DNA sequence: CCCTATATTGACCGATTGGTCGGGCGCCGC
DNA sequence: GCGGCGCCCGACCAATCGGTCAATATAGGG
């Protein structure tokens, strides 16, 4: 018992998980049949039940793995060094790149968050959200403490703004692409560079910035 | 033929549409059965087929109506007067309020946009997006032309940023609410006020704003 | 070689799915 | 009174759903 198998452990299990991940990321839970998963994995439907007790458990396992992988990806975007401004630039770019690199994971997890009627694993999907959000808030707070950023804004609000900018870009990229006025749909790095610059410097010309305060 | 009925026209039809709208906004297409819709509407399943040829047509009709209503709501947020800054403040507040007032419509339309596997009526759902986005871009452009806003940013980028801030807030409000650092989850007006202020004035203290340009 | 444990399968189950059909109910013009 | 027509329903259909089961293939250890 417990001896390490020389042949790939759980090779069949991984095949099933990969197939289910692909299908569940494209279509909703009820729109994906166990037959379709078996077909995609190249095995029989009954064989799935050798590894997973039922459809919900399989879905949960897929979401669990996706959530873990996504969380790891996104956390990599947070660890950076240098001035706060540099960290923010790095975060924005890496965060969006992570989303775009693994769109299946993002769609999978985000759909679970949006679904109002069937919270199968909502708390679990929210976990990835937590770490990134908290880390970003911490960065902003330290920026305020060091005097690199204004002290009169709520860090959580700016964190929401930045995350929202990236998530919204990810979600609506296909729509934005066929707008002539949008030149950044296929240039996520440029998008984030612009976003961060605007956030840092604002939209008001400096000469008239004081007129806003009234 | 064509005589106006004194009794409510399409009263049954409206009942079905309302029931379907409620269910389709909570759960995905395949997760909502015709039986459930009939039950919710208080009629028989067979009766639905007297008004709609099949499930897809019903869903399409629901999405059509929702998209139209949402579009109307959101367009109201755009028409405003005064300085560009005032218009932006008004837009942000009204736009988010519209989303929060009719969450069923938003979820319905937005799910259709996110679904990668079954574009039942994507183009149709995107229609609402178009008007709001264009209108917001126009506002920003006029602000630049009048010199009220800086001239060195892309209007479409800022429009994306603002819409994303609201949509993301709408989507993740339930998650944000149980973060202690977030005080604005139940104060959308305050959230948007903060967003707009940051966008206008930036995060950098004015004294050190020039250090960013390097 | 056999024995055991894991993998894998086709056939099958009851329940539910989207959709159909024939007929009943009620109202309005004749 | 009496057709006709829009509205509405219970019963039914084939197909598919998630899930079960008994039977096989496939290994590796003794």
Automatic annotation (TrEMBL), chains A, B:
Protein name, per record: TetR/AcrR family transcriptional regulator
Organism this protein belongs to: Acidithiobacillus ferruginosus
């Amino acid at each position: 018992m417990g001896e390490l198998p020389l042949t790939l452990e759980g090779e069949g299990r991984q095949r099933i998980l990969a197939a289910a991940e692909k299908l569940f990321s494209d279509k909703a839970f009820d729109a994906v049949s166990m037959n379709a998963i078996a077909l995609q994995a190249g095995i029989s439907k009954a064989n799935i039940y050798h590894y997973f007790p039922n459809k919900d458990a399989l879905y949960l396992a897929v979401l669990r793995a996706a959530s873990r992988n996504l969380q790891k990806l996104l956390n990599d975007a947070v660890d950076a060094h240098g001035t706060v401004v540099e960290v923010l630039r790095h975060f924005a770019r890496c965060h969006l790149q992570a989303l775009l690199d693994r769109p299946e994971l993002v769609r999978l997890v985000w759909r679970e968050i949006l679904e109002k009627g069937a919270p199968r694993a909502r708390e679990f999907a929210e976990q990835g959200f937590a770490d990134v959000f908290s880390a970003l808030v911490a960065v902003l707070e330290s920026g305020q403490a060091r005097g690199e950023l204004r002290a009169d804004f709520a860090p959580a609000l700016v964190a929401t703004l930045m995350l929202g900018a990236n998530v919204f870009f990810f979600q609506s990229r296909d729509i934005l692409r066929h707008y002539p006025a949008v030149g950044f749909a296929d240039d996520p790095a440029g998008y984030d560079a612009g976003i961060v610059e605007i956030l840092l410097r604002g939209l008001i010309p400096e000469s008239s910035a004081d007129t806003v305060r009234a």
